[in-house]
């Protein structure tokens, strides 16, 4: 971020009055540009014990398998985002059941949320962002070809704890490393 989106002046990176961390601040119009984590919402679609996965047609991680998920849009709920992404990427209509995992990924400033979902009918197809979409038994999950750690962690926890009603898995990937890095870079 370099220029003010209101007046096009060059931004400074300073701690504003009353704040406790540096922000991008416009010296001309005083606008402050806050940067906060973005939310990725998706589903863990299950059909007769099989999991629906999508092979990505886009970067990053083109050709790798993922659960259907994507960035939330303004104005929608996390549930709506998960359902929309499942439709866009897998052309699948699912019934959301419960929050399954909520994973903080500090090194990319994202939070990933997956809902357990039931795919009632085995009806799906590759959307624009997918090369193919398929159902997998546990023993056939392509563990070495999964696109993202949050996907593999979510699947691992699902198969490790198959009792249907479980508390959501809330965890982070690499927060201690990120903290250490932050402490180091701040002196
Ligand atoms: Zn400005």
UniProtKB/TrEMBL annotation:
Domain of life (superkingdom): Bacteria
Pfam families, sorted: NUDIX, Zn_ribbon_Nudix
Limits of the Nudix hydrolase domain: 36-159
Cofactors required: Mg(2+)
Entry-linked SUPFAM superfamilies: Nudix (SSF55811)
GO molecular function annotations of the record: hydrolase activity
UniProt cross-references to InterPro entries, sorted A to Z: Nudix_hydrolase, NUDIX_hydrolase-like_dom_sf, NUDIX_hydrolase_dom, Nudix_N
PROSITE patterns, per database record: NUDIX
Protein name: NUDIX hydrolase
Species for this entry: Thalassolituus hydrocarboniclasticus
Keyword line: Hydrolase, Magnesium
